[in-house]
Amino acid sequence: MNLPADTLSQLTTDLNFAGQAWIWLRANLIELAGAITVLVVGFLVVRTLGRTVDKALGNAERIDPTVAKFLGNVIRYALWVVLGVTVLTQFGVQTTSIIAALGGLALAVGLALQGTLSNVAAGVMILLQRPFRVGEAISAGPVMGKVEGIGLFTTEITQFDGIYVMVPNNELWNKPIVNFTRLPTRRFELVIGISYSDDMALARSELLKLAAADERILKDPEPVAFVASLGASSVDIGLRVWIATTDYWQATWDLNEAAKARFDEVGLSIPFPQREITIKQEPPLLSGPEGRAGSTA
Questions:
Q1: Which residue of 92, 188, 239, 248 shows the fewest CB atoms closer than 10 Å?
Q2: What is this structure's pTM?
Q3: What confidence score (pLDDT) does residue 214 get?
Q4: Long-range CB contacts for residues 149-158, cutoff 8 Å, separation at least 24
Q5: Which domain holds residue 255?
Q6: Could you read off the pLDDT of 133-192 as tens digits, one per residue?
Q7: Is 170 part of any domain?
Q8: Does residue 260 fall inside a structural domain?
Q9: Domain tally for the chain?
């Protein structure tokens, strides 16, 4: 049977390829078996190490669960890369160029996602340093409210006026963070003005009585009453007390109201701002013949 020339050429090519493949297989049988062995063993090792790392990071009390998951994924991906390079080495592939290519790829991805990666880095630092936790009230730049969630990219905050805000972690990390609820106690200073004719000692005494009567005000540090300043129209009397953070706002509101009521009871006045105005009047200018005559004389 006579075959067309093109068909015969294709068969010859296929036979040559199969023959070359068989020759390569026989020549590299040991390397191929070693690569398969490394792949299987490496797969088991990577999976076991990944589970071990996840369990160890999950049981670490000082590491946030989000950070633990992120670090676990990074370690797992790094192990897969090492396994891939090791398998290629079994075939005699020069891995230097592959590593260089991976480095270039990582650099390109890093430049393209530098804003996102900066948020990830800031998120990791926030989760590690813990300047605030979920449920705490903070202020950072123009944002002030209660922390609802902390992620690797953003932090969720509910402002005190009920507005939901999602803030990039980089914006929080690069600004001073004020945590209102981290410490168990807070200091409150009340300043209230009385008239210059009122008794300063009586005002200080009444404020201290108010502090002693309120159970929410701590006895240690001891409340202090003092003359804060001599204002333009009043003598400003100050009261400095320490309050548990959980009672802070309600206690300060009640103390302001009680101070006004007590001062009214004992006859201490809270003066309105006063200002003395002196009008300097110039003598009228004379005009006409009399004025000219007077000036001539």
A1: 92
A2: 0.61
A3: 93
A4: 150/64, 150/66, 150/123, 150/126, 151/66, 151/123, 152/66, 152/70, 152/119, 152/120, 152/123, 152/124, 152/127, 153/116, 153/119, 153/120, 153/123, 154/119, 154/123, 155/123, 155/126
A5: 185-266
A6: 889 999 998 899 999 988 878 899 999 999 999 999 998 998 999 999 999 999 999 999
A7: yes
A8: yes
A9: 3
